[in-house]
Automatic annotation (TrEMBL):
Gene name linked to the record: Syf2_0
Keyword set includes rRNA processing: no
Name this polypeptide is given: Pre-mRNA-splicing factor SYF2
Superkingdom of the organism of origin: Eukaryota
Region of interest called Disordered, as start-end residue ranges on this chain: 1-34
Pfam families named among the record's database cross-references: SYF2 (PF08231)
Biased composition (Acidic residues): 16-27
Similarity section: Belongs to the SYF2 family.
GO cellular component terms listed in the entry, alphabetical order: catalytic step 2 spliceosome; post-mRNA release spliceosomal complex; Prp19 complex
Organism for this UniProt entry: Elachura formosa
Amino acid sequence: PAASRGSVAERASLQSEEEEQEQEEAEPSAAAELRREERLRRFRELHMKRYEACKLNSQEVLEEDKRLKLPPNWEAKKARLEWELQVQEKKKECAARGEDYERVKLLEISAEDAERWERKKKKKNPDLGFSDYAAAQLRQYQRLTRQIKPDLEQYEKLKEQYGEALYPTSDSLLHGSHVPSKDGVDRMVADLEKQIEKREKYSRRRPYNDDADIDYINERNAKFNQKAERFYGKYTAEIKQNLERGTAV
């Protein structure tokens, strides 16, 4: 009986040792499996990030190509068109409320902004009278182009009607295919009548400039100085500056 009990104990100890050895072998394999799953998960995340980066790069390349094909001043034109659309919406709102848009706009402008815009307007487009026909033609062109109001609804209709033919090339043959609308003809006639009326009231009297230097004693002397400045101003500018500074020799 003692020998049988010893053999049972030995078998139990051997079995426990085998179980411990199997457990020790199973633990590294489980840890290795966890590490493998973690690496696979990180690999998938990196793969998705790489895919997203490629996708964003492709989109940015397309957007950059579109921007390069646009005119150089497209952003300024777009901002101005959006501003004009906002102005038209405000005009419609004021008309619906029975208010004067110009009065409402002036109420929203501060005195400092009004003075700054007035100074900028005088500096940007001073009316110096007639100098030559090229300058007069340029001023007329700028005045007429400022009056043009884009009609985006009509533009979309023309795009649907003509498609790619709306943007002609050197190989396009569109002569005689365009018929102006009645509203466009009426606008042209009204503008021509306004030009004729303004031309009839035109006076050659030059505007008085408060900021100009007073270098004359009467009207006749002022005319003489203007003629002298026109023909000899570029030659006597340095002499005049030296006299004003008191450094003339």
